């Protein structure tokens, strides 16, 4: 089976390989129906829902700053899609450059004045 097909698939939503993002399709009783997410959204194959487009996930896997959730939020990217979010505490949050673990202050990671950008 190449491309978008409902052959052998249960009813549900699937990412489209024939159409560009944010297209996806629905299989219902063997019939294929193309759908599209709203502007600034994409279909996430992990959750099988439309959600805010995390463009940072197109630049590799791992923890990154979240565009959709905003300041203090990190997103774990896998194969171009967000799969998990983490929020740093409200009190002076920073994210360690290499581990992307939330830390209380930059001083705990690099010493005074050694914050990563």
From TrEMBL:
A Gene Ontology cellular-component term: extracellular region
Superkingdom to which the source organism belongs: Eukaryota
Name of a matching Pfam family: CBM_14
Single GO molecular function: chitin binding
Matches recorded under SUPFAM superfamilies: Invertebrate chitin-binding proteins
Residues annotated as domain Chitin-binding type-2: 6-51
Protein name per its UniProtKB record: Chitin-binding type-2 domain-containing protein
Organism expressing this protein natively: Ridgeia piscesae (Tubeworm)
Lineage per the UniProt record: Eukaryota, Metazoa, Spiralia, Lophotrochozoa, Annelida
């Amino acid at each position: 089976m190449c491309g978008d097909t409902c052959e052998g698939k249960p009813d549900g939503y699937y990412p489209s390989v024939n159409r560009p993002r944010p297209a996806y399709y629905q299989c219902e009783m063997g019939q294929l129906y193309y759908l599209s997410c709203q502007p600034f959204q994409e279909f996430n194959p992990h959750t099988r829902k439309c959600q805010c487009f995390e463009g940072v996930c197109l630049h590799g896997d791992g923890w990154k700053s979240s565009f959709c959730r905003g300041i203090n939020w990190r997103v774990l990217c896998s194969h171009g899609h967000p799969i998990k979010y983490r929020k740093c505490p409200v009190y002076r949050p920073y994210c360690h450059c290499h581990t992307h673990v939330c830390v209380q202050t930059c001083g705990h990671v690099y010493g005074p004045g050694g914050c990563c950008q």
